[in-house]
Automatic annotation (TrEMBL):
<keyword id="KW-0479">Metal-binding</keyword>
<protein>
    <submittedName>
        <fullName>ADP-ribosylation factor-like 5A</fullName>
    </submittedName>
</protein>
<keyword id="KW-0449">Lipoprotein</keyword>
<keyword id="KW-0547">Nucleotide-binding</keyword>
<feature type="binding site">
    <location>
        <position position="143"/>
    </location>
    <ligand>
        <name>GTP</name>
    </ligand>
</feature>
<feature type="binding site">
    <location>
        <begin position="97"/>
        <end position="104"/>
    </location>
    <ligand>
        <name>GTP</name>
    </ligand>
</feature>
<dbReference type="GO" id="GO:1903292">
    <property type="term" value="P:protein localization to Golgi membrane"/>
</dbReference>
<keyword id="KW-0460">Magnesium</keyword>
<feature type="binding site">
    <location>
        <begin position="199"/>
        <end position="202"/>
    </location>
    <ligand>
        <name>GTP</name>
    </ligand>
</feature>
<dbReference type="InterPro" id="IPR024156">
    <property type="entry name" value="Small_GTPase_ARF"/>
</dbReference>
<keyword id="KW-0342">GTP-binding</keyword>
<dbReference type="InterPro" id="IPR027417">
    <property type="entry name" value="P-loop_NTPase"/>
</dbReference>
<feature type="binding site">
    <location>
        <position position="121"/>
    </location>
    <ligand>
        <name>Mg(2+)</name>
    </ligand>
</feature>
<dbReference type="InterPro" id="IPR006689">
    <property type="entry name" value="Small_GTPase_ARF/SAR"/>
</dbReference>
<dbReference type="GO" id="GO:0005525">
    <property type="term" value="F:GTP binding"/>
</dbReference>
<dbReference type="GO" id="GO:0046872">
    <property type="term" value="F:metal ion binding"/>
</dbReference>
<dbReference type="Pfam" id="PF00025">
    <property type="entry name" value="Arf"/>
</dbReference>
């Protein structure tokens, strides 16, 4: 079950993948091979303590003999494909919420499609998530009380805020509300969309989506697009629907 602002529409299952430099290089190799080209590809410079290396990517074969226009067309197609591979816009997303809400579990469900063992996040985790050729750079930020004052250091250029709520934690829902409205009042988030994951819906006697929406007074939010989605981080149920909502917001901008 989900409650959302705006018109409802069918939700399709999305394919979510992560992207690495190595996978991009493999994709580039396929493009170059198809155009029978040969060049030297240099990955981004490695950070301190890591080796930097050049990878030679060679195409084999022979272009058919013909007019020069064929060669220009082939190279045009080649560089168009390369540009598309490396120049997708990234959309910054921050994942926040109180400690033990399930933020890190959700991040790695997105990136690995599996449950990983997690410990309380000190600082942040970051992953690049690709959904139907749309790239999201997702920052999972620690939710302990001592860390919440540093959340605002991540706000710059944020397009979406994901707030993860522990649906079993009735005692601290008022704290979640306080932190939520403190964030929404920040200048750097004035244009950010808001996605709320009501996590742990598989637990008996948890708060429903309607209850959480009422506790947080979501209908009073007029200056941000928002959506609340029931989910279970352990199984992944409901997560794709949340991503679908973010994708729909990007399409109407």
């Amino acid at each position: 079950m989900s409650v959302r602002s705006g018109q409802g529409r069918a939700v399709a299952l999305l394919r979510v993948t992560t992207t690495t430099t190595a996978s991009r290089a493999r994709g580039l190799h396929r493009f170059l091979s198809s155009a029978s080209a040969c060049l030297l590809f240099e990955p981004p410079r490695a950070g301190p303590g890591r080796k930097s290396a050049k990878t030679e990517i060679a195409g084999r074969g022979e272009l058919p003999r013909g007019s020069q226009s064929f060669g220009r067309l082939s190279m045009g197609i080649l560089f168009t494909r390369i540009w598309r591979l490396f120049n997708h816009q990234e959309h910054k997303v921050i994942i926040v919420g109180l400690d033990n809400a399930g933020k890190t579990t959700i991040l790695y469900q997105f990136s690995m499609n599996e449950v990983v063992h997690t410990s309380p996040t000190i600082g942040s985790n970051v992953e690049e998530i690709v959904v139907n050729n749309t790239r999201f750079l997702m920052w999972d930020i620690g939710g302990q009380e001592s860390l919440r004052s540093s959340w605002n250091t991540y706000y710059t250029n944020t397009e979406f805020v994901i707030v993860v709520v522990d649906s079993t934690d009735r005692e601290r829902i008022s704290v979640t509300k306080e932190e939520l409205y403190k964030m929404l009042a920040h200048e750097d988030l004035r244009k950010a969309g808001l996605l709320i994951f009501a996590n742990k819906q598989d637990v008996k006697n948890c708060m429903t989506v309607a209850e959480i929406s009422q506790f947080l007074k979501l209908t009073s939010i007029k200056d941000h697009q928002w959506h609340i989605q029931a989910c279970c981080a352990l199984t992944g149920e409901g997560l794709c629907q949340g991503l679908e909502w973010m994708m729909s917001r990007l399409k109407i901008r």
